[in-house]
Structures are given as C-alpha cells and as structure tokens.
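Work Package 3 committed the consortium to producing structural models of liganded targets before the mid-term review. Because experimental data for this complex are still outstanding, the team generated a predictive model from sequence and the ligand definition alone, so that downstream docking and mutagenesis planning could proceed in parallel. The input record is reproduced below exactly as it was submitted to the modelling pipeline, together with the SMILES string for magnesium ion.
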Amino acid sequence: MAIRFVRTPIVSSQRALTARIIGFVLALAIGAIVLGIAGFDPLHLGTQIIVKSLGSRFGLEDLGLLYTPLLLTGLAVTVMAKMGLWNIGADGQFYLGAFVTTAIGLFIKGPEPFMLILCFFAGAAGGALWILVPTLARAYAKVDEIITTLLLNFVALLLVYYVATGPWRDRVSGTTASTGRVPYKMPEFFGSLHWGFVIALVAPILFGLALRYTRWGYEVRLSGSNPDAAHYAGIPVRRRMISIMLLSGAIAGVAGMLEVAGTVHRLQGGISNNYGYLGVMVAVLARGSPIGVIAGAFLMALILNAGIILQTQGLTTSAVLALTGLMMLFTAVADQFAHYRIVRTQAATS
Amino acid sequence: MTDQAAPPTTDRPVIALRGIGKVFPGVIANADVDFDLRAGEIHALLGENGAGKSTLMNILTGIYRPDSGQILMDGAAKTFASPVEAIAAGIGMVHQHFKLVRAFSVAENVHLGWKDTPRLASKSVLEARTRALAERYGLAVRPEARIDELSAGEQQRVEILRVLARQARVLILDEPTAVLTPAEARTLFTALRAFKAAGNSVIFISHKLDEVLEISDRVTVLRGGRKVVTEPTANCTTTKLAQLMVGREMVLGGLREAMKPRTEPGRVVLALQKVSATDDRGRAGLIDADLPVRAGEILGIAGVAGNGQRELSEILTGIRKPTSGKVLIEGVPVDNPSPDIFIEVGVGHIPEDRIKSGIAPALSISDNAVLRAYAEPPIAQGVLFKPGAADKLAQQIADDAEVTIPSLSTPMRNLSGGNQQRLVARREMRIAKLAIIAAYPSRGLDVGAISTLLHYLIDLRNSGVAVVLISEELSELFDVTDRIAVMFKGRVMGLYETKDADLETIGLLMGGQTKATSASEAA
Ligand SMILES: Nc1ncnc2c1ncn2[C@@H]1O[C@H](COP(=O)(O)OP(=O)(O)OP(=O)(O)O)[C@@H](O)[C@H]1O
Ligand SMILES: [Mg+2]
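The resulting structure, written out as tokens with the ligand in place, is given here.
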C-alpha cells in the first residue's frame, strides 16, 4: 500500500469550509503555543477575546463598527473580481469617500438628513472618481488595473494627510493629523452602531440579487466568464467593464463616507485603517461570492477586534499583526489543501 | 485489409476494463462497461453524443474515479489517481479540447510537467530536444512557435508528441480528426500506423464512420453508457455501426428530396462587397471578398480550414470589423458593424470554435442556452432577468436539441462535447429569422445528429431563411447546398450552382488551382 496526495481541480464548498475550519483551529493552536512560551496565558487571552468581543454590548458595538467598512471594501473587491479584475485601490477610494464627506461637513451647511444623503452620493462619486483613470486606462489601453489602483492609494493618502495637517487641521482641540469635527452624524440604533452597518450588510445581498435577477447582472456574469462569448452575444463588454469598475470604486467610497459620518466624525491621516487592503483578503475569503463577503468580513472583523483586545492585554502591535498574518496564512494554506485528497493504492509494480 | 505486415495482435490485453460504472448527479455516464485493448491494435470507440466515451477514457487516465469496476494493466489491477500517473504507466490521452498552454512555445509545452525535463534547461536545449523527439516520431512541429500561432492540426501534433515523448504504449485520441483538414488527418493516420507497427496500441474515438473503418482493427460501441458490442472492424459496415450506436434502423439521407425546388433566386439578404479583414494576428485574413447571400438558399463555403473562413463568418455576423469594403443587410450598407445589429435583424451564428466564443463553459446550461434571448420578454422584463423563464426556455431548447440534461444549473462544461454543439446549434437556429451562418456545425456530432442538423438547415432554407454552411466535408456540401463558393488564402475563388459543379473543380480550387492551371502543370 502506498499513500499519495492527488490534486482535484474543483472543490466542493463543504470541503473548502472544513479545510478552513481546520486551518483556523491550527492557527489558533500555534498562536496559543507561541503566546504560552512568551509567558502569556493563552487560555485567559482567548476567553478575554470571546468575552470582550461577543459577550458584551460594547464588544458587539466595536465589532459592528469594524465589520461595516470591511463588508463594503470586501464587496468592492468582489464586484470587480466578477469581471476578472482586481481592485487593489479600495484604500484610496475609501480615503476619497472620507475626504469628500469631510469637505461637505466642514464647508456646507444644511439640514442633517439631506446632508447625509448628499454625503452618501458624494462619497460614492469620490470613490468612483478615484478609480476613473485606472478604469479608462484598463478599458481603452489594457493597462493593468492592479498597478494603477494600487499607486493611487498613495496619492490619496498624501492628499488626506495634507488637508488633515494643513488647511483643514483641527484648530480647536489641536489633535495632530486630524480635521475638525464633521457635524453630520449617521443615526445610531445600537449604542454607537449606526445605520451604515445596515447599509453595508444589505449591499452584498443587493449585489448578489442584481447579478442573478437583472439583465445587467447577466451581462456582467457572461462578460466576466468569457468576454469573447459576451461580444458574440452583442454585449458591450467594455461598457460593462467600466460600469463594474466605477461601481467598485463607489462602494469603497461609501465605506469611507460611513467611516467619517458614522464612526470617526472627522478626517484623520490613518482613517482607512487598511480596510481597503483587508477588503482584498475578505474577497479572497469570500471566493467571489457576494454573500460570502458577509461571512468573510465577519471573520476579518473578529480577527481585527481580537487584535485590539490583545493589545489591551499587553501584547505589542507587531505581535498582534503576526497573529493576524498567521490566521490569513493558514486560511490560504487550507484553501490549497482542500484541493488535495489522499488516496491509498497498491504500490506500483515497477 | 492492408495491415498484413503488422505484427500479429496478441489476445492478451494490455488494458482491460472490467465492469466500469460512473454516475454523475442525474446521469449514468458509464454502467458495467468491459473493454479490452490488445497490444498492436487500433481500437475504435463509438457511440452517440453523450454515450459515455470521453468519460470512460477519463476514468482510464485517472481524471475521474470509477464508482465501480476495475482497471487491469498487463493483468494487474491498477488505479491511476491522476493523468500524470497514467502517463507514467504508459497511457496518454489527447483530449477533445486541447489542454496546451497557449502562451508557451511548443518546446515548453512538450516539456511541461515531465520528469525527464532537464533542470535549468535553456530555451535552445528544450528546442533541440523537441526537434529530436519530433524527428523520432515523425511528427512535424516547430519547437519555437507559440501555441496560439498554430493550426488545430499542428496543436494536435504537439499534444501527441507530448504523450509519445513520455514513452506511452497506449495512446488515446478523443475525436482527433474533428478539427483536422483531410490532409492533416492523413498525416495523423500515417503516424498512428507507425506507432501501432511498433507494437503499441491506440484507442480512437470518432464520429466519422468511414475513418473508423479505415484505421481501426476492432470497434467497441457504447450506448447510453453501456457497452453494446466489440467487433473486428472487418465485419462492420457504416450502416451496421450506425445502427449499433442508436439501437435501431437509421434513416439517413433524403436530404436532396427535402429541399423544395427553387423557382427563382431569392433576394440578397446579406452581401459583402470587396470586403477585406485582418485575422487575429493582424495579417490579411479576408481579401476583397464579394459574396451575395440569398434568402431561401443554402450557400456552401468550401475550402481547407484556415483560409479565411473564420474571418468570413465573423464579418457576416458583425463580430469582426472589415478593414475595407462594404457589408450590406437587405441592400443597406452597415456603417459600423457590431454583433447586436446582426442579432437584431435575426442572423444566427454557429461559431467555428464554440468553447472560445460561443459559450461560457463555467456558467450554467441555462445561462448559456438563453444567450440569444436574455434581453427580450419573457426572460427580460424591463431591467429584470427572470431565471425561471430562462430555465423554461433552456429546457425547451435542450428538448429540441435532443439533449438530456441532469439539471439546468450544471455548468455547461459538464455536457459532452457533442451535446454542447447541439445546444448551440438549436439556440442559433431559433433566432435565425433572416439568415444563419453555420461554421462547421457538424463538428463533434454523431451521425444521427448530423442528419437531424442538416434537415433543420434545409427546413430553414425552405422557409426562406438564408443559410451559409461553412464546411470541409465536400460530400456534406454537395448533399445540401444550392450554391458553393470556395475559399483559398483569404479569397473567394468562385461561386457555382451546386448542380453544375463537380467535385474535381471544387477540389482543385480548394488547393488554389483551376482546371486550366492543373492541366498545364500536368503537361
Ligand atoms: N463532470 C461531469 N459532470 C456531470 N455530468 C457529466 C460530467 N462529465 C460528463 N457528464 C455527462 O456524462 C454523459 C457522458 O458524457 P461523455 O462526455 O462521456 O459523452 P461522449 O460519449 O464523449 O459524447 P460526445 O460524443 O458528445 O463527446 C453526458 O450526459 C454528460 O453530460
Ligand atoms: Mg466526448
């Protein structure tokens, strides 16, 4: 008898899930062992994480506030992946959404509900604007969108740092790298958790429904699956690609808008908190499924939240980052392992 | 038979399949199949579309695991967990749809995933090795060429070389001649005979019965996943084989009789005037083509594949834009041709390469079946797309195409090759109000399905639709066309009334010669 690993090209979702759970548990175990060696009590830390994030109202609020932007950035990346494209620039689009919202908040006065609606659309437009150049470059000159969207992140970051430390800096409290307070607030419904959370939770569902139940959705699915067949079917593939990329940018922009109007209430240098990049991870976890984004973003929010709790327990930021990385690594490895099955055979007679 | 000189085939099988069964959700692909392959034989595997031929071979080569049954090699039980293991044991397969890496060179493809590939080999070393292998097996390939640049025949030689280079004793060919020109098919047969003469074996899947009679020593017929019979080819005729495949007397032919006599030439519904177009690599694909396509007639386009047929069919359906010249619909020049214009007026298109441009293999059967109808009621309603209505239409198209499908949500790629083709053909005929452009529509279809397809094309013609039938099978063209044009090196060489044309003239034109030139050459 011999034992071999054999790769199968297609993996059932049940199998993929099992592999991930195993990977997750392994990552936890390794993390616990390392923490144990470093002199921490892993069991205590573990209980702390669970109790503090899921066992209390404040914990749940914090979790919800982390969950909201991750849902949207994860969705933004997934939307573009439907067309076989990668949006690595959700961070930049997030910044733009936040930037535009802050601009409106600081300089335009009006009734709050109306202003919030204005912010919502302006934030979406800001995100869409930020991906406009990569979109046109991709659609008309086949310029790789991965690089262009990524580069624009740094531009957005510089822009936000510039206004937050320069012209718009907070002159009242003197906080560094932060603008003054934005007066318009998303209404809250559960402690500090605001309605933006509901918007973020509904968005992936809406997108999933649109893919399945609209003509546009059919055209996007066909164009993403085989552009030649879409062209053959008379679908304007380039226009669908443009609409998808702008939508992706707009969703990330809305995430930035909600972060300002719902959670932070001002524009800060590091306001994106890497949500855009984490969105890529959420999309990978979701395996291209809009509904999968809801689960993937939740897992990511839990991990982030656990990281914050661990910091309060005396772990350094880099240790927390290492633990987060460990989780991601094991998920990725598990995804690969799900492709393999073990077979036992008679040993070859050669 | 001409194979007297071949070494005697021994009765001890190299490979024996015993009681193989395989069920996919909703389909029994194989049930209780026994199959023997002897050393030094070419064994043909026949059966209707969806009979389970490809599945059986995928089981043998370790792509699928059988649900039941056993594989014996040289008398010993074996399981192959992957094609890599099968090839290591000497069994190699060339698939219905090639699996080469298109952006890689021939030499790289031959050496990909091969344990004998030298580590850190330079490009020139790989190319030299490939050249040596090509010479040894008598397969002409260009080691430095990229796969995208190659014709179907050349790609197939690369696939075969890949397999032979790994010292296969058993070569499995799944519909190898479907995409070959007649000349390429001859080259292939010569190579197969040489391979067999060395004591090796071939399993040969084909729907072309005369080829089967010509090349094979024995024939096994599958029907509905079960084995019907294994017979020496010498005892078979095409009629007998066709009958064994479908399980009843088959009435083929009757095509001419079904064609309503034409009183006068129909109006010109599509026309090309001095149209030129480039191919995918930017070279001249179509040169100064003039072609009137008339209502109520079948216009045959004869020619060796790769002489501008793809460009012609894409110009006639708006997929490709001409570089010069005019395309007219109902006498009106089309300013900026695009596919939606042609769909709108009712031009159906069975494309040359269905996998590449006619379907989305990863999407569901339902999504693929409604590709032509998704934007209209009842499937579309305003901006909405109604999956329920889509399923209903898809089921209807599948029924009309005589394809049994397990579930409409199965990915299209899980259908057998011939069944994919049947669905595409039905889908396109459904929308062909004005014209249908059918490029090699019978590729991959079984004999019965070809006959049905041709009858449907005749029905369309009789009802006043213009039919353009691009084909390499002269017999098919002479059976059903009203007129025949010949393509050679991107040019339309002549347009003949089929009843006035003779095989010889057309055959010569396909090679770029006219009777006069060939006579003067002979002199
Ligand atoms: N991966 C799969 N999943 C589900 N069904 C499958 C799969 N592969 C094959 N089938 C089904 O099994 C049956 C046999 O298919 P197979 O490809 O073996 O037919 P075939 O004899 O090669 O036909 P053809 O002449 O059309 O190529 C078909 O009904 C097909 O739809
Ligand atoms: Mg097949």
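Reviewers should note the following from the model. Residues B 53-54, 96, 174, 416-417 surround magnesium ion (ligand 2) (CB under 6 Å). These observations will guide the Year 2 experiments.
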